[in-house]
């Protein structure tokens, strides 16, 4: 099924975001592991795996729409040198991602591609959960202090 070119370009842009997030999260996860924060490592690694699944869905949809998935483009990756920087960078990126998915959902509706819109809506729900998880971490760091928070992450 030949898809709308603007929508395919938008899907490729979303794919670049997902591939970038995978890289950022994997580096953050491994940094957490290296520092001995196993719980944080597991949480961030799980988020990276979710992003991998999103990338897979986008690739499948682009191919279905007879487009070419572009996997060589990445957005800027923001590696944090500390846990608070990592959480803040991840949160900022997720907020951008939520905005991008909302805009893509509108476009999919405008070009009458409701199946793509449904896929994007499903992914958006995961991204909303990521924002919520990251805001929860930010709140915990603020309320507990960083030292107490980190002592709970072994």
From TrEMBL:
It catalyses: 4 Fe(2+) + O2 + 4 H(+) = 4 Fe(3+) + 2 H2O. Residues 1-145 form the Ferritin-like diiron domain. This is Bacterioferritin. It comes from Gordonibacter faecis. Homooligomer of 24 subunits, arranged as 12 dimers, that are packed together to form an approximately spherical molecule with a central cavity, in which large amounts of iron can be deposited. Its cofactor is heme b. NCBIfam families: bfr. It is an enzyme of class 1 (oxidoreductase). Keywords: Coiled coil, Iron, Iron storage, Metal-binding, Oxidoreductase. InterPro entries: Bacterioferritin, Ferritin-like, Ferritin-like_diiron, Ferritin-like_SF, Ferritin_DPS_dom. Belongs to the bacterioferritin family. PROSITE patterns: FERRITIN_LIKE (PS50905). Its EC number is 1.16.3.1. Residues 120-154 form a coiled coil. The gene is bfr. Iron-storage protein, whose ferroxidase center binds Fe(2+), oxidizes it using dioxygen to Fe(3+), and participates in the subsequent Fe(3+) oxide mineral core formation within the central cavity of the BFR protein shell. Pfam families: Ferritin. One of its GO terms (molecular function) is ferroxidase activity.
């Amino acid at each position: 099924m030949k898809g709308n070119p603007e929508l395919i370009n938008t899907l490729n842009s979303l794919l670049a975001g997902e591939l970038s997030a995978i890289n950022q999260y994997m580096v953050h996860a491994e940094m957490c592991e290296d520092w001995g924060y196993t719980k944080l490592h597991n949480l961030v690694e799980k988020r990276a795996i979710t992003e991998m699944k999103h990338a897979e869905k986008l690739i499948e949809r682009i191919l279905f729409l007879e487009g070419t998935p572009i996997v060589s483009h990445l957005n800027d990756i923001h590696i944090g040198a500390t846990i608070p920087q990592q959480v803040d960078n991840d949160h900022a990126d997720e907020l951008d991602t939520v905005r991008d998915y909302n805009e893509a959902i509108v476009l999919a509706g405008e070009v009458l591609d409701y199946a793509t819109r449904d896929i994007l809506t499903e992914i958006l729900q995961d991204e909303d959960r990521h924002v919520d998880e990251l805001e929860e971490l930010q709140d915990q760091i603020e309320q507990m202090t960083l030292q107490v928070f980190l002592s709970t992450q072994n």
